[in-house]
Amino acid sequence: MRHRPSLPFDKLLGAEEDTEMEIFSVCVAIFARCTIEPSSEGIPDIKEAIHIGLNNGPHPFKVKFNKRYDSFLV
Question: Could you tell me which residues come within 8 angstroms of residue 63 by beta carbon, excluding any fewer than 6 positions away?
Answer without folding.
Answer: 36, 37, 38, 39
